[in-house]
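Contributing new records

If you add data, match the layout below exactly. Sequence lines come first and carry their own label; structure lines follow with theirs. Keep one chain per record. Anything else will be rejected by the validation script.
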Amino acid sequence: MYVYSGIKNVLQPWTPAVASLRAEAEKACCDARFNSVFLNRYRTGLDSMGWHADKERELGPKPVSTSISLGATRTFEFRHAKTHATHALALTHGSLLVMRGRTQLEWIHRAPAPSRRCRSALVTASAENTCGRRRSSRRNRA
């Protein structure tokens, strides 16, 4: 069981599709091994994720986190925690975003709702290594 934003998520066995996404993320990160994948579904522009950092204790002191975008192009934004400088990226279908090192300590990020309604959904598969979790687990937030 994993709790995120007060929601209890039950660990599920790896499906071939999710295991393939994890393998792609690991290949891109060379030295990283992931034992969990979050699946987030953003419907037709109605859903968003607010400013946050992935700093949960179980992710370790310098977590490596990846996000593979599947579906609609959406904006992903970073804001520096001290200077408030911002950067925006357009993540298209198949994009792989890697956050590592001090990223989670010095920056916050979000997936804002688009300014106009999208016609298609976006699913992100975020791979992470959760300390104390077995490699054979998967978490769903969809």
